[in-house]
Each structure stands twice: as structure tokens, then as C-alpha cells.
């Protein structure tokens, strides 16, 4: 999909890189074809009004809502669902199946420490999209639709203290994984296209997507 008029050059750079990755991955793995090419990760400290960004995302993309136990999680979740449901944008919830049920989300995203729950959740909700964080240091978990590998580039937030993988190491991890893999961590409009030959199935970001899709 080509973005219509009204989007910034930064938005086009990220979206074009993400969709190119997804097309290339889908040519090799049919599982990648059904996945969103771009994931917008929310963060309580950095995305204070995530539904506004969600309402600008192109059809086919997805939001991963990380509430981290916030008292207004359900309210924010409903706002995100309202912003996405008629736009063809998927909504996944971080780690909390009950919250995902409450806001009629499309799936769940799990931290790496919780991937052992994937088989049970898959059994309970076979229609959900299931993703999980992965840092490449342990065997890639299964019972999932995709992995999110980070940090590819020097990043902020929770990944600020972790060394960046770099493109070469990232590509090696993608090749070793049995599942489609997204690139997360320090992805910007300026470096997104450099991931073109890594076999990633798409891109994920917090600040870069929020800034680009205003």
C-alpha cells in the first residue's frame, strides 16, 4: 500500500521500508504475508496519547499496547480500539489476556520471560495474533506468529542500556529463527531502509512512528 497525500516524508520512509521487508519475507514464508509490516509500540512514558498516533496509522499496520498495569488501562485500550477497528489496523495487548479480552484486541504480545504461556494462550484463543520479544540469546520460542528482536540499533527506553546488535548480527538471528522476525530498537526514517536484505518481516518502533505519523 502506498500512503496517500498528507503523510510526512518520514512516515513514507518508515512505511515503504516496512512494506518492502514484508513483501520480501512473504515471498519466502507464507506466514509473513498475514502479518502487519509495521508495529507501533506504546509506552506509558513516551506515548502519552497513543490513540492519536493509532488514528493516523495506515491500514495493515498494528499497535502493540503496553499498559504496564496502568490504572486507566481499560479506558486507554478502548480508545485505541476505537481508533483502529475501522481503519484495518490490528491491536495487540502486552502480556495481559484479560485486558485483551476486555477491549476486543486482535492478539497478545509477550515479554521473553513469559513465552512459556504461548501454547496455552494459543489453545484458548486460536484466532489471536501472538508475538513475543526476543533478544537472540536463547532458542527462538514457538507457538507464536512472530518474534520482535531488539535492539537492532542504539535505542532509548528499556533498551537504552543494551548493546545494539547491528545489521549483520540481526540478520544472522533472523536466519536462525523459525518464525518471522521484526526489527525493533533505534529504527528511524534514516536507517529503516538499511534493513532491506536482513529477511525481517517488518519494522517496529515507539518514538520514530509516533513522530512520523502525527
List keywords for this structure.
globular, 8 strands, single chain, about 210 residues, eight-stranded parallel beta barrel, alpha/beta, 8 helices
Report on this model:
The protein is of the alpha/beta class. 46% of the residues are buried. It has an 8-stranded parallel β-barrel. The protein is built from 8 helices and 8 strands. It has helices at residues 9-28, 30-33, 50-54, 73-84, 97-102, 118-124, 166-176, 207-212; strands spanning 38-41, 62-65, 90-94, 107-110, 129-134, 146-149, 181-184, 202-205. Strand 6, helix 7 (166-176) and strand 7 form a beta-alpha-beta unit.
List the helices and strands and how they pair.
Blueprint: H1 9-28, H2 30-33, E1 38-41, H3 50-54, E2 62-65, H4 73-84, E3 90-94, H5 97-102, E4 107-110, H6 118-124, E5 129-134, E6 146-149, H7 166-176, E7 181-184, E8 202-205, H8 207-212
Parallel strand pairs: 1-2, 1-8, 2-3, 3-4, 4-5, 5-6, 6-7, 7-8
Radius of gyration from the alpha-carbon trace, in angstroms: 16 Å
Mean pLDDT: 94
The portion of residues assigned to helices is: 25-40%
The helix/strand class is alpha/beta
If helices are DSSP runs of H or I spanning 4 or more residues, what is the number of helices? 8
Contiguous runs where pLDDT drops below 50 for at least 5 residues: none
Largest sheet: 8 strands, parallel, barrel
Beta percentage is 15-25%
Describe, in short, the structure shown.
The chain is α/β, with parallel strands linked by helices and 214 residues long. The chain contains eight helices and eight strands, in the order ααβαβαβαβαββαββα.
